[in-house]
Design a protein that fits this description.
Elements: H1 3-21, E1 26-29, E2 38-42, H2 44-56, E3 61-65, E4 69-72, E5 75-78, E6 85-89, E7 92-95, E8 104-109, E9 114-117, E10 121-123, H3 127-135, E11 145-150, E12 153-163, E13 170-173, E14 176-186, E15 197-200, E16 203-208, E17 211-213, E18 219-221, E19 226-231, E20 234-235, E21 241-246, E22 255-276, E23 282-305, E24 320-335, E25 339-344, E26 351-362, E27 370-374, E28 376-385
Parallel strand pairs: 1-3, 2-4, 3-6, 4-7, 5-8, 6-9, 7-10, 8-11, 9-12, 10-12, 11-13, 12-14, 13-15, 14-16, 14-17, 15-18, 16-19, 17-20, 18-21, 19-22, 20-22, 21-22, 22-23, 23-24, 23-25, 24-26, 25-27, 26-28
Bound molecules: 2-acetamido-2-deoxy-beta-D-glucopyranose (NAG) (5 copies).
Amino acid sequence: MTRKGDVLSVLLILIMWFSQGVKGVKFFNVKDFGAIGDDHFDSTKAFQSSWNEACKWREKAVIEIPRGNYLLRNLLFQGPCMGPINFHNSGTLKAHKINLGLNYWVEFRYVDGLAINGGGYFDGQGSESWLKIMEDTTPMNFLPITLMLDFANNTRIENMNFINSKGSHIKLNGCKNISVNQITILAPENSPNTDGINIALSRQIQVSNSKISTGDDCISILPGTEDVNITGTRCGPGHGISIGSMGLDPNELAVKGVNVKNCNFTNTQNGVRIKTWATKNIGKVAHISFESIVVNNASNPIIIDQNYCPSHQCPKGDSHIQINDVKFVDIMGVSQTYVAVNFRCSKYKPCEVETRNINLKYGSNKGPTISSCFNVKGVASGYQKPPSCIS
Ligand SMILES: *[C@@H]1O[C@H](CO)[C@@H](O)[C@H](O)[C@H]1NC(C)=O
Ligand SMILES: *[C@@H]1O[C@H](CO)[C@@H](O)[C@H](O)[C@H]1NC(C)=O
Ligand SMILES: *[C@@H]1O[C@H](CO)[C@@H](O)[C@H](O)[C@H]1NC(C)=O
Ligand SMILES: *[C@@H]1O[C@H](CO)[C@@H](O)[C@H](O)[C@H]1NC(C)=O
Ligand SMILES: *[C@@H]1O[C@H](CO)[C@@H](O)[C@H](O)[C@H]1NC(C)=O
């Protein structure tokens, strides 16, 4: 054999060794399936086919979305798949402006080991639908959620941007072990129903190092959710981080084990909130902590509202949701109103809360803040400004 032949065979062996080394990762570029990122072409079919093929690949599949603006209708990416999938989006996915007629725009269902990353955008193009909703009072069931994870396990959403959703930006429903890290969500302060992240019927959820600015709740934690940690996240504008609303439906499952830590709120309606409707539906909220929170101009920095009534027609009575073991620790900053701590609990099911080291002042030297208590018991310790009203 010649020297040249030797070199070639060594190269061949090296190439084979490397390709085995990456364990059969296969790339599925949406452009190879016909997607065109020119802002006009409808790439729905191309995205759907690339998912269908990636989902059949036995090992790791990477769906590659290069830079460009891809116009897309509803997409249902359904599993279970043969191997883990990385949805690597470096482009801008754009929803059609018209109502999409379904409750999601992009949905991943029955997936395990999915990663969504790549630094790109999901643009819900919601502004026309917001106007419609504000003119029209019919139910809002079909305001599509930008990104829905339905019964997904072991999934990461990382380094991704969400703007101007029609309904919520992200919803986790029936999920287990999901981490959301370093994302941004951005919609105008006056956009209706544009929640940042809704979490329902899910467990082992982590949200970290993210920035959420929107017209409704930054994060809401809904019935049947357990073991949620939210850290290093900024909210504002928006309606704060909420547990609930609870009590709308009978037989709701409890919310348990939620920790919100090292987060801040700037120009928000609420800071940390628990809200329940005043219905006879039973339910439970327990083992919740809000810790090391900075509030910079929230109307209601700390609030439990068991008489939640966002419109004019609400059930009237006493909430039957039991709220237990809720801790507010090291919460400081500026309240937009003088009632900085507001506990409006149910006469039927008084709340049990603990406050420790609270330091909230009213605007820029507008005077003292106060606490307001209805049907709340528990303990207050450390610094308390406003003075505690817990008995
Ligand atoms: C997710 O986990 C649940 C409970 O562990 C399991 O029943 C379900 O089949 C899993 N789903 C997928 C898509 O792997
Ligand atoms: C949670 O999911 C991640 C992948 O996102 C995985 O690496 C990790 O092992 C999972 N943890 C558990 C406890 O299953
Ligand atoms: C949340 O934090 C607690 C306490 O640090 C930890 O025990 C738990 O495993 C964490 N859960 C998740 C989903 O990160
Ligand atoms: C808000 O929180 C973020 C993330 O933890 C942090 O980077 C930022 O400095 C904080 N801002 C204020 C005003 O506390
Ligand atoms: C406080 O926040 C509200 C919105 O909630 C905003 O309209 C107002 O300008 C803010 N005030 C300051 C001093 O930033």
